[in-house]
Structures are given as structure tokens and as C-alpha cells.
Write a structure and sequence with these properties.
By secondary structure, this protein is of the alpha+beta class. The chain has a domain of 123 residues: Aminopeptidase, CATH 3.40.630. A 7-stranded mixed β-sheet has the order 1-2-3-4-5-7-6, with helices on both faces. Strand 2 and strand 3 form a beta hairpin. Helix 1 packs across helix 3. The protein starts with 10 loop residues before the first strand and ends with a strand.
Length: 178
């Protein structure tokens, strides 16, 4: 568990062991179904993934090959956020990419996403990451505001086909942890 006393009462920021893969899978598939315009991955692609896919993702985080944290309320996962390094160049340059950001809609606007991001950035910095990148659909205004408020800067924009099958303008953002 990642301690944080400024969360709303009873919300915890946690990591999960690979044995809890079904909880992760449920939340991830909910995110892809509920907000397909926010993800590069399609629901159908991940819904058909084998159990080992989900286990491997959590094991990679447990092994320090990636980072995945969750917001938990009353023993239910309500949010998540991950980061990974795409390739050897990212590892050499100590760069990580934030992905898979999601919070169940009824819990938005309460500061939980900011707490998740703070916890993830703390883990990345502790792991020696010096540059954090992310991409966000220009229509995701609350997410964009969160990233700007946490010190991310706009680097460029590009058109991307997202999980809803539509072309969206995506903002590429970056933050230095050095």
C-alpha cells in the first residue's frame, strides 16, 4: 500500500499481486467500455486476452519492470494508473510513459486522480525515472487540467485512432522528475 493521508476517508492507493489479476481485468475492461475515446486499446482486443496477459501485467509491476497502482474504496477498485518503458532507449534515458489512467465516473472531481498521479510519480522518481511522458485526448479536459496542474508541459499534438475507432487530436505531454 502507498500511504497518503489526504485522500477522502477510506480511499487507499494500493498495488496488487499478480494473483489479483481478475480485479485488475474487471476495472480495465470497464475503463475501455466506459471511456473508449481515452485509450489507444480497443475493448474487444483486451476482452479476448488470456488470463496470463493480466497476470503478466501485474507481475511486471511487482517485479519493477513497470508500475501499476490502484485507488481502492471499501474493498473495490475504483481507479488505476500505470507507467512503463517502451524500449531500450527509454530505459537508457530513464523515461517512462503513463498509460491506463482511469477513475470510475462517480468518483471523479474528488482529488483521487491527483493522488494516484502523485503516488505514481513518486514511484517513478524512486525508480530513477527522470522524464515522464503521456498522451491525452484533447476532449479529456479534466485530465488535461490535472496534468498541467502537476507540472506536465505540452510538447506536441498528433492525430490518433483511439479505442472508439475515431480519429482524435491527442496532446503529447512531458514532465521532468530531475
Amino acid at each position: 500500500m502507498v500511504p497518503n493521508s489526504s485522500l477522502p476517508a477510506s480511499v487507499e492507493i494500493v498495488t496488487l499481486p499478480s494473483s489479483a489479476w481478475e480485479l485488475y481485468k474487471t476495472l480495465r475492461l470497464l475503463s475501455l467500455k466506459e471511456s473508449p475515446q481515452a485509450f489507444a486499446t480497443r475493448y474487444d482486443d483486451e476482452a479476448s486476452a488470456p488470463d496470463s496477459f493480466w497476470q503478466d501485467r501485474l507481475q511486471a509491476a511487482a517485479d519493477g519492470r513497470s508500475w501499476t497502482i490502484f485507488a481502492k474504496l471499501n474493498n473495490q477498485l475504483i481507479g488505476m494508473m500505470s507507467a512503463y518503458q517502451r524500449d531500450d532507449a527509454d530505459r537508457t534515458n530513464r523515461i517512462a510513459e503513463v498509460v491506463g489512467v482511469y477513475l470510475v465516473p462517480r468518483f471523479r472531481g474528488q482529488g483521487i486522480s491527483g493522488q494516484l498521479l502523485d503516488a505514481l510519480l513518486g514511484q517513478l522518481k524512486k525508480s530513477g525515472i527522470v522524464t515522464v511522458r503521456l498522451s491525452v485526448n484533447e476532449d479529456q479536459l479534466a485530465a488535461i487540467n490535472l496534468y498541467f496542474n502537476k507540472g506536465f508541459q505540452l510538447k506536441s499534438k498528433e492525430h490518433v485512432i483511439l479505442g472508439d475507432g475515431q480519429d482524435h487530436l491527442v496532446l503529447l505531454m512531458e514532465k521532468s522528475l530531475a
